[in-house]
From TrEMBL, chain A:
Keywords: Coiled coil, Transferase, Ubl conjugation pathway
Occurrences of domain E3 UFM1-protein ligase 1-like N-terminal (ranges): 4-288
Biased composition (Basic and acidic residues): 486-496
A GO cellular component annotation in the UniProt record: endoplasmic reticulum membrane
Membrane spanning stretches: none
Domain (E3 UFM1-protein ligase-like C-terminal): residue spans on this chain: 699-812
Composition-biased stretches (Polar residues): 411-431, 455-464
GO molecular function terms listed in the Swiss-Prot or TrEMBL record: UFM1 ligase activity
UniProt cross-references to Pfam families, sorted A to Z: E3_UFM1_ligase (PF09743), UFL1 (PF23659), UFL1_C (PF25041), WHD_UFL1_5th (PF25870)
Residues covered by region (Disordered): 404-496
GO biological process assignments: protein K69-linked ufmylation; regulation of proteasomal ubiquitin-dependent protein catabolic process; response to endoplasmic reticulum stress
Residues forming coiled coils: 550-584
Protein name: E3 UFM1-protein ligase 1 homolog
Automatic annotation (TrEMBL), chain B:
Bias (Polar residues): 12-27
Protein name: Ubiquitin-fold modifier-conjugating enzyme 1
GO terms under biological process: protein K69-linked ufmylation
High-level lineage: Eukaryota, Viridiplantae, Streptophyta, Embryophyta, Tracheophyta
Superkingdom to which the source organism belongs: Eukaryota
């Protein structure tokens, strides 16, 4: 048996026999500690580790924590919990206590960080910064695994001491770098001469920096530039003003701007906002008002009061002279019409004049003296008159027009071939040209006062018919405006112009021709002023024209009435006579031949004169009605018409009247007075005349007057031949109470008819006288061809004989009539 | 991690099995045991001689190593206040007898323990017998041989010849007792014997 084996056996036996050590289990220990706690033997807090195998006092824990912190200066609570093996809750509690007791420690985001740690970090950062000249805070924060804000707050107190640099917009810069960028900013800012948005400058600077630094260069924030810039501005390194933080206006620019504005304004005493806009002043009105409080802001321009005074004076002058003024012509060219109207509203004298109705502002910039407008109105009125006249007498109108054109042509000294032609044409017509020249004289004289125009002498008569035409023309006038404008001077358009009477275009054209200065102004479009002017004048013109028309109308009506009254009167008289004479014809009813002769005589004398009167008067009436000028002075009765003329007149009468008139004229050629009378009655009815019937009383008075007339005639008669019919007539009145109109041929019959009525002696005297007269007349009629000596002698003897008989005959009649 | 490193070490030793007498436990299937068993097992000295009861002097050598490891294991148990068996061998060391016990609910249950060293030892593990418990539990072969876990045999085979009796007790019997005794006690199959318990204690 091996000794060693035995030994081992023994040892094993011994080992097995050995008393095993008594050990308390963990649980027992825990129970024991609990017991001690309960028994107040352990009277302090005991903490146990996470493993549950160890007990630790809080003091020990805090001690361990402090040592942990002191190792690195920065420990996270979780790491502390791991290192101490104590629950995080207790670690946190202890750490909080430690941190609150120690000012150099801070608890941030579950980490305990001591000041010394930050100092080291700052030193590290400084080292790096000196190398790189710039570091982003975010980068540092990323490396240190803390918030960049924390870094910033930590770094700020150390800037300039531990960290030699400056913090700007989340970036750290070395002073050298800052000064370089500062120089860049300074250079760029000084280079700016016009107002600039700084952000654009910064972006370009950024580009530049990036180019210099290459890809590694950290983007410099524009806020950095901005602060540098602000610093420069504060130091006065760069001059200028900053608006809204980014709009930099360099002092150079501001000075230049101010100087140019001031110089312009002081030189011209006005300045347009456009000019200021060009200079980069965004709110010109405020700018100017702050600098020149005395100035006046207008729509697009800023003016010095002196301009207003000037305009005021000019306008006042124009108003006083009864002229007109375009304020734009007085004002500088850059004034717009709105400005003109604004400035006019500021002119004191103009406003006063306007208020007191002495001036008129038209088309925003034009000031018209009331005198001028009146003058224009007067002249226009006359123009319209001329137009009215010329409207219905074509030649006169044309001539006038031509003359006018010639005038305008001359006055504007234009040598348009067309107008020359017209001059030629017009000069052929002497009368028309004279009128024109007369007018021209009047007009040239009428510059200062109201013009005396030639055609004044002609009384304007506006017939109703043409009125109607013109009214229609006005309605259609608008369609012809364009034509009239383009071809106003062409003769072919004249007819149209008539239609455009008193239209705006017409007025404008007229005004242009009347006041050529409107044209001479060199205005782009004279219509700008002429149209409002025309608009202003036109209603007045139309009114006056209407009034005149009314006057003319009533005038005409009166005239027509007068003509008709005249006619009526004449007709009354002569028709009564006629009827009177007609009655006498009844005496001769039985004698056919004599009757015919008598009828004829009556028709040819009284009836004819009646017909003529009627026709002429009706013709006049008709003409007046149609607006044709009639010479009133002429006495229509004095005219005796041939049958052809009569027919012509009759035919010229209007409508049904013409037919009746022709019938009347034809009845004159007939043999019956009755037919004439009926025809006349028909015509009178048609023309509205009344015919008086002959009644007894009227007949008597008529006869009486006729008789008296005849008696006076007879008593005054010296010529023996015409005495006889008068005596016979008188005798007929005396005997038959009828007025006989007998021609020479019918005298014998008439005389023979008196035979029964007269006593013989009287009859004998009558017969003798009759025969003697017949003989005398026969002799006289024969004498023309025969020997003169004997016939003349015979005539003379016969005449003497008759003259001898005359007293007898007269006595015969007169005595009886007187008795 | 630890097991991987160990595995690598074991593999390296497998390649050169005779170069070092001091070796560690080989095998990747240590997961089958509880941590205390594992830590204990690693502390039991490993054996080096591969010899059976018929190998004469080699067996004696082997027996010496067995004793050393047993001594170490026993003293370790004692120092941890975890003494749980007594064994003794016959003269040639082929049959081992003794007692083992387990404390359950502050009561000590003690059983007889015996096993023979098989002829093919150490390739074959000894079959530990608890004759008193024969027929009382299903985790047992006929004759009171305990059923070992599925993990035991491969681990033993892998660690031949380094594992010895101490390992077999530690890996085989100790877990078995821990698992089975409370069940046996609770089911009433095993009754506590006050006298034996007090006798062994004293």
């Amino acid at each position: 048996m091996d000794e060693e084996l035995l030994e081992l056996q023994r040892q094993f036996e011994f080992a097995q026999q050995a008393k095993s050590s008594i050990r308390l289990s963990d649980r027992n220990v825990v129970e024991l500690v609990q017991k001690l706690h309960d028994l107040r033997i352990i009277d302090f807090d005991l903490l146990h580790t996470v493993s549950g195998k160890e007990y630790i006092t809080p003091e020990q824990l805090s001690l361990e924590i402090v040592t942990e912190i002191e190792k690195l200066g920065r420990v996270s609570l979780i790491d502390l919990a791991d290192a101490t093996g104590v629950d995080l809750y207790h670690v946190e509690k202890q750490t909080q206590r430690i941190v609150s007791n120690d000012a150099s420690l801070t608890l941030i985001n579950g980490e305990v960080i001591s000041t010394s740690y930050w100092d080291t970090v700052a030193e590290e950062i400084n080292d790096r910064l000196q190398e790189c000249s710039q570091i982003a805070l975010a980068e540092i924060a990323g490396q240190l695994q803390v918030g960049s804000e924390l870094i910033a707050t930590v770094l700020e107190p150390r800037l300039g001491t531990l960290v030699k640099g400056r913090l700007e917009g989340g970036q750290l810069y070395t002073p050298a770098y800052v000064s370089r960028v500062n120089a860049m900013v300074c250079g760029a800012s000084r280079g700016i001469t016009v107002p600039t948005n700084l952000s654009a400058v910064w972006s370009s600077l950024q580009m530049l920096l990036q180019e210099m630094d290459g890809a590694s260069g950290v983007a410099v924030e524009s806020s950095f530039f901005q602060t540098l810039f602000n610093g420069l501005v504060k130091e006065g390194e760069i001059l200028g003003s900053l608006r809204a933080g980014v709009h930099w206006t360099p002092a150079v620019f501001a000075i230049a701007q101010k100087e140019s504005v001031d110089s312009f304004f002081s030189q011209n005493s006005f300045i347009s906002y456009e000019f200021l806009h060009k200079l980069g002043i965004p709110q010109p009105i405020q700018y100017l008002q702050s600098r020149h409080p005395e100035g006046i802001p207008l729509e697009s321009i800023f003016v010095h009061p002196s301009t207003i005074e000037m305009l005021d004076a000019a306008a006042e002058d124009a108003i006083e002279r009864n002229s007109w003024i375009d304020s734009l012509s007085v004002l500088p060219a850059s004034f717009a019409s709105q400005d003109a109207s604004r400035i006019l509203s500021l002119c004191r004298s103009v406003q006063v004049a306007v208020k007191s109705n002495k001036a008129l502002i038209l088309g925003e910039s034009y000031v018209f003296g009331m005198g001028f407008v009146k003058d224009l109105f007067d002249r226009m009125e006359k123009e319209t008159e001329i137009c009215n006249l010329s409207g219905f007498s074509g030649t006169v109108r044309d001539d006038l027009h031509a003359a006018e054109e010639a005038k305008t042509g001359k006055e504007t000294s234009s040598t348009i071939a067309e107008s020359n032609e017209i001059v030629n044409v017009s000069s052929t017509n002497k009368q028309g040209f004279e009128k024109g020249s007369k007018k021209r004289k009047g007009k040239s004289a009428g510059k200062t006062g109201p013009a005396e125009t030639g055609p004044d002498t002609q009384e304007p008569t506006v017939p109703s018919k043409s009125k109607k035409n013109q009214r229609k023309g006005k309605d259609t006038g608008s369609f012809q405006v364009l034509d009239a404008k383009s071809g106003a001077k062409k003769e072919s358009d004249r007819t149209k112009e008539d239609n455009l009477f008193v239209s705006e275009e017409w007025l404008i054209e007229k005004t242009m021709s009347l006041f050529p200065e409107f044209d001479e102004q060199g205005m782009d479009d004279p219509e700008t002023i002429l149209r409002p002017l025309a608009n202003h004048v036109r209603p007045m013109l139309l009114n006056s024209w209407k009034e005149r028309r009314k006057v003319a109308f009533t005038d005409n009506a009166q005239r027509m009435k007068r003509v008709l009254d005249n006619l009526q009167r004449k007709i009354d008289e002569s028709f009564l006579n006629m009827q009177l004479y007609e009655k006498a014809l009844d005496l001769f009813e039985d004698d056919q031949s004599t009757s015919v002769i008598l009828h004829r005589h009556l028709l040819r004398t009284t009836a004819t004169s009646i017909a003529d009167t009627v026709l002429l008067n009706l013709d006049i009436h008709d003409k007046i009605k149609n607006g044709i000028e009639v010479e009133e002075s002429q006495n229509p009765e004095s005219k005796s018409l041939s049958s052809g003329e009569r027919i012509a007149f009759a035919k010229s009468l209007p409508g049904l009247l013409s037919v009746k008139a022709v019938a009347l004229v034809e009845s004159l050629e007939g043999k019956s007075v009755e037919s004439f009378v009926t025809a006349f009655r028909a015509m009178a009815e048609e023309s509205g005349l009344t015919l008086k019937k002959l009644d007894k009383k009227l007949e008597r008075t008529l006869l009486h007057s006729y008789r008296k007339d005849l008696i006076s005639q007879v008593s005054a008669e010296v010529d023996p031949v015409p005495l006889l019919p008068k005596v016979v007539s008188l005798l007929y009145i005396q005997v038959h109470n009828k007025a006989l109109q007998a021609p020479g041929r019918a005298i014998s019959v008439a005389v023979s008819r008196l035979k029964e009525k007269l006593d013989d002696s009287a009859y004998k005297i009558l017969m003798d006288y009759h025969t003697a007269t017949v003989a005398l007349l026969a002799l006289m009629s024969a004498a023309t061809g025969d020997d003169e000596d004997c016939t003349s002698d015979r005539v003379l003897t016969k005449k003497e004989l008759l003259e001898g008989l005359m007293p007898e005959l007269k006595g015969l009649v007169l005595s009886s009539s007187q008795s | 991690m630890v097991s991987n490193i160990k595995k690598r070490e074991l593999e390296a030793q497998q390649q050169t099995p005779n170069q070092s007498t001091k070796s560690t436990i080989r095998g990747s299937t240590m997961e089958g045991w509880d941590p205390s068993t594992k830590s204990t097992l690693t502390q039991i000295p490993l054996l080096s001689t591969k010899a059976g009861p018929r190998d004469g002097a080699a067996w004696t050598q082997r027996l010496k190593e067995e004793y050393r490891s047993l001594i170490a294991y026993t003293s370790m148990n004692k120092s941890k206040d975890n003494d749980w068996f007594r064994i003794a061998a016959n003269a040639d060391g082929t049959r081992w007898t003794g007692k083992c016990w387990y404390v359950h609910n502050l009561l000590k249950y003690e059983f007889d323990l015996q096993f023979d060293i098989p002829v093919t030892y150490p390739s074959t593990a000894p079959e530990i017998e608890l004759p008193q418990l024969d027929g009382k539990t299903q985790k047992m072969y006929r004759g009171g041989k305990i059923c070992l876990t599925v993990h035991f045999k491969p681990l033993w085979a892998k660690n031949c010849p380094r594992f010895g009796i101490a390992h077999a007790l530690c890996l085989g019997l100790a877990p078995w007792l821990a698992a089975e005794v409370p069940i046996l006690v609770d089911s009433g199959m095993v009754k506590h014997k006050d006298d034996t318990a007090s006798a062994s204690e004293s």
